[in-house]
Amino acid sequence: MARTKPCSNTTEHGSDEASPHPHTAIVYDRARFIPKGTNRAVSDTKANTMFAERAGAYAALCAITLVAFWPVFSLDFIRLDDTLYVTSNPGVKLGLTAEGIRYAATAIVSGNYHPLTVLSHQLDVSMFGLNPRGHHAVNLLFHAANVCLLFRLLTAMTGAPWRSFIVAALFAVHPLRVESVAWVSERKDVLSTFFMFLAMGAYVKFAERKRAFTYARMLVWYALALLAKPMPVTLPFLLLLLDYWPLRRAGSGARVRDFARAIPKLTIEKLPLFALSAVSCAVTFVVQRDSGAVRGMESVTFAQRIENVIVAYVMYLQQLFVPVDLAPHYPMTDYSTARVVLCGVLLAAISVAAFLLMRTRPYCFTGWFWYVGTLVPVIGIVQVGNQAYADRYTYVTVVGVTIAIVWTVGEIVEGRTAIQRACIAVCAILIFVLAAATYRQTLYWKDSIVLFTRTIEVSPRSSIAHKVLGLAHAKGGDVASALPHFQRAIELNPLDRDGAFNLGTALLLLDRVDESIPYLNAATSVYEKPADAYTNLGRALMQKNLLPDARMYLLKALEINPKQNDALLNLGIIEGMLNNTQQSVETLADAVRRAPDNADAHYNYGIALLNAGRTEDATRAFEEALRLRPDFPDAAAGLEQVRGAKPPDS
Q1: Which of 45, 23, 47, 21 has the alpha carbon at shortest distance from 36?
Q2: What DSSP letter does each residue of 144-156 carry, written as one string?
Q3: Which of 105, 111, 523, 528 could form a disulfide with 533 if both were Cys (CB 3.0 to 4.6 A apart)?
Q4: Which run of H or of E encompasses 69?
């Protein structure tokens, strides 16, 4: 590929043919974007030209990113994790306030500790409320910033703006980026990468001029990256790879033994970074273990984990080259021995080739082990969740493979003008095709129903897809459509802690009470919110007129969670059905105080007051129910009855 050379007597990193010192770094005057030592009489025009070219590159990268992800401005929140991180998270909904900041400092969200991510969501709520457009726009803004930072970082390290631009453009518009950008819950991805790239940029400056302030700035950026998401814990190892190529910190030569001798010194230099990584790893493991996110060996054996690791490494490469049938969840599955062996042979072959090319193609070594190393925290040795692999885990990792490919092709076509032009044309077409695929993939994230309908098409054995699609239908009032998805989810994963509760509740809402009771009874011992399970079981038994048992389960729900207002409301109704009129009035009065905007609470309170002979109070209760819900026929009938007609049924 054609390369823009700063001046006639210099060449870009990585060219073994064009310079007598092929691995010597170009040292730039960072204020003027020109190589140091250039004659100032001729440098001004070159500096202005290079500045314009650099600005044009940033503009082009932002433009293609915006076009590829334009649909994000019309996306809704997704029921998978967005409820936990934003829409149903009371701490986040506080906004960026003093109380909110205190919450962020200690909050464990979805089994993760990432206070900086929580703060960013709180800031979004303060600026946009719960309008999803603003939240998605911030994700896209961070992604565009990461694209520009990657271009700047690679150019600073290699002096190869054309190749750096291509890598950044492919990073910008590849369909694998969609999950990290279009999913509000993955703010942690784009936010942590933003600070990680800033830390890497500071490291490049430190490597050039060893200044304590620059090193301190790097530590701050790295700490912020870890506070957004712990995945960058491998950064110190990645920086060691960059020390070999392109920074050449072991000397100007490409001899491997020189680098090996320099490793101890370079490692000692990074001890504060390793310390931050160690603390982050320890905190993450403890938090995820204590929250139940880490799966034990009884559910996924060590052998299964190793098999999945081997296959997942190859699957990410496959998705990089053929990004089709992407989904937010790929379930764990059993692999044939032949597939595991073939994947293992392929990985071993590429790794051996990378080692053999350390001298002649050092970017292949750095690029490949960038990919292998940065995937280690999420590859599944410590199994968190039940996914086999995930698109979001490629956000930073596959950059290494892209670097290796782009630099290899660039070296092959070096000095061949016609082939270079053809390569540029092919790259332009590839970027356009990937951008179009990304645009289309982003449309699938429109809402939970569209996304998980698509997920089931490409990953039909995903219990999570069926569960979330069922929840989306139920939330929209279409419980009949939700039911088969809840049934399929529990078939695919009988151990899912939510499965029995979701299916039992759907059956209850469809008046299939007898079928619902066994599932709700099972949910009381496995569901993460047992008070909700006891509440719905009490409702089911109430409909079967098994009032003493129903009352017992509702009291159990309130014992577990005194703020369970639905349990309190149903308990008040049961007290009335048991002719405990005064107890019914007191319980329902408490329910109204706790939920003053609940029309059902006011209506049932009115029934209790009417049964107690307090007609004036009953009138006010029915009127309030109608104010809250004007199309409430039972409350209207109650108001008619209290004014002299026959009392309504409770």
Answers
A1: 47
A2: HHHHHHHHHHHHH
A3: 523
A4: none
Relative orientation angle of helices 256-269 and 271-290, to the nearest 10 degrees: 70
259 Cβ contact partners less than 8 Å away, ≥ 6 residues apart? 243, 244, 250
Q: With residue 25 as reference, give the H or E element that holds it.
A: none
Pair 240, 195: CB distance under 8 Å: no
* CA distance to 342, 357, 395, per residue, from 366 (Å): 24, 10, 17
Task: Give the length of the chain.
Answer: 650
- Strand 28-29 to 34-35 pairing: antiparallel
DSSP result, 227-246 = HH-SGGGGHHHHHHHHHHTT
What are the tens digits of pLDDT across the range 133-153?
Answer: 999 999 999 999 999 999 999
The answer to whether 602 touches 622, Cβ cutoff 8 Å, is yes
Q: Tell me whether strands 387-389 and 330-331 are parallel, antiparallel or unpaired.
A: antiparallel
Give the pLDDT confidence of 233-261 residue by residue, as tens digits.
999 999 999 999 999 987 655 567 788 88
- What is the biggest distance separating any 2 CA atoms in the chain, rounded to whole angstroms? 105
Tokens of 645: 């007609």
Segment 340-364 shows an average pLDDT of 95
Can you say whether the dihedral through the CA atoms of 184, 189, 195, 198 is positive or negative?
Answer: negative
**Could you give the percent of the chain with pLDDT greater than 70?**
89
Residue 342 has pLDDT above 90, yes or no: yes
Helices then strands (H, E): number in the chain?
29, 4
Identify the weakest region by mean pLDDT among 6-15, 263-272, 569-578, 606-615: 6-15
87, 100 in Cβ contact below 8 A? no
